[in-house]
Amino acid sequence: MLRLRFCGAHLHVANNSTSVFVTFVTATVKACFAALQQIRSIWRSLSLNALLTLIRALIVSKLDYCCSVLAGVSGTLQRRLQLVFNAAARLVFSARKSEHVTPLLQELHWLKVPERIQFRLCVLVHRCLHGNAPLYLAETLHLTLNHAAISGPDRHRHYSCRQRDEPL
Question: Is residue 51 part of a domain?
Fold first, then answer.
């Protein structure tokens, strides 16, 4: 069973089976590197726009799929996913492995994996709270005031989201 809990600025996902995440990340990384290898074999004949389109369609979309459920996974699994982003960025800019990848990611406007997961979770919560998410998902969350986080003028900004069946 998956539980979502929003604490301050972080949404945590609790799951008892980490082997599911290991299997998912392993399969995703393997598929992405296979796609990168295929793209690498033809990248010289592609324009930059075509190359970016292929990478977004075949790599980034795979990495973003179910990204929000990876919140709270180990740093090792996140690093494995980050390696794919790094390899894709290096392919786009024809960079060597020894070159720093952070400027390349910034040039592409790509977030690193932990920030990407947090961004996806924030978008998901925003959609739930504003009625833009599927009803089955929006109904599992509700707002409660977090009294422990109240301090001064920010007291109206601190909320937490819990599953409806979770006790207060």
Answer: yes
Max intra-chain CA distance, the chain = 59
Q: How many domains does the chain have?
A: 1
Between the alpha carbon of residue 16 and those of residues 2, 20, 48, 104, 161, the distances in Å are: 8, 9, 43, 36, 20
How confident is residue 9, by pLDDT bands cut at 50, 70 and 90? very low
* Structural domain harbouring 105: 16-112
Assess if residue 68 is contained within a domain: yes
pTM, rounded to two decimals: 0.75
The lowest-confidence range among 7-11, 71-75, 162-166 is 7-11
Is residue 165 a part of any domain in this protein?
Answer: no
Question: Is residue 142 assigned to a domain?
Answer: no
Cα of first residue to Cα of last residue in the chain, in angstroms, is: 18
CB 168 within 8 A of CB 162: yes
The CA–CA distances, whole Å, from 111 to 18, 89, 116, 117 equal 24, 12, 5, 9
Distance of CA 25 to the CA centre of its chain: 12
Instruction: Tell which wins on pLDDT, 97 or 144.
Output: 97
E strand or H helix that includes residue 160 = strand 159-163
Average per-residue pLDDT for the chain: 81
